[in-house]
Amino acid sequence: MVNKTRKVKVCGMKDADNIAALSGLAIDYMGFIFYEKSTRYTDTVPEVSIPNNIKKVGVFVNAAEALIHTKIDLGLHAVQLHGTEPPTLCRVLRNRGVKVIKAFGIHDRFNWSSLEAYQDDVDYFLFDTDSAQYGGTGQTFDWEILANYPLPTAYFLSGGLSPANVADTLAIADERLVGLDLNSRFEIAPGIKDIEKLNEALKIIKHE
Q1: How far is residue 45's CA from residue 27's CA, in Å, rounded to a whole number?
Q2: Which one of the listed residues 28, 90, 121, 128 is annotated catalytic?
Q3: In the annotation, is 128 catalytic?
Q4: Are 205 and 165 in contact (CB under 8 A)?
Q5: Domain coordinates of the chain in residue numbers?
Q6: Separation of alpha carbons 36 and 108, rounded Å
Q7: CA distance readout (Å), 161 to 35, 121, 130, 158
Q8: Regions of the chain where pLDDT drops below 50
Q9: What is the CATH number of domain 7-205?
Q10: Whole-model pTM?
Q11: Relative to the CA of 183, which of 96, 105, 130, 134 has its CA 20 to 30 Å away?
C-alpha cells in the first residue's frame, strides 16, 4: 500500500447549492464540464464561494482553442482535455499558467507509446475507461493494465470509482498515481453529488 495521501477530484459539478456543499469537504479539485453533449454540461463556473485550496478544473472535449481560453478566464486552475487534442495545444495552454491534464481511455490493447509525445507538455495524465462518450460511464477498467504504463508522468485514475471500490485503489502501489477522479457513481442525478457518500469515500482515501 502507498502511504502518501492521494488527491481527490470531484468532476461534473454544475449546481450552485451542491457546489457549496461540496466545498465543505476535503477535496482537492472540482471539475466543470464544458462539453455540450455531457449530461453534466455547464457553460460557466457558478458564482459560489469555493475555498482557495480547491482548484477549479475545466473539462473539454475537442473544443476550439478560443473557447478554452475564454473558460480559463473564469478562474480555472487547470484544464482537462478529454478528446484527441494534440500536444501542441497542451503546450499552448500550459504556457498560460494553468495545469494541463490529458485524459486517455484505457483498454487491454492500449498503445502506451502514444503518450510519449505528450509527456513534456502536460502536468498529469488521467486514465479513464475507454468509451465513445468521453467519460462519465460509471464503468471501471482492469487496473492491472496500469502495470504497463512506462512513463514517469503522474496520473489520475478515473472510470467507475464508487463507494464500493474506492478502498481497493489503496492497493495500487504506484507512486505515480497522485489522485482519484470521482464522478457518476457518487451522484443522486447527473451533476448532483451525494455529499454523504463522498465524505465517506474521502475518509478512506485520506486515511482519516
Answers
A1: 17
A2: 128
A3: yes
A4: no
A5: 7-205
A6: 29
A7: 21, 27, 14, 7
A8: 1, 3
A9: 3.20.20.70
A10: 0.95
A11: 96
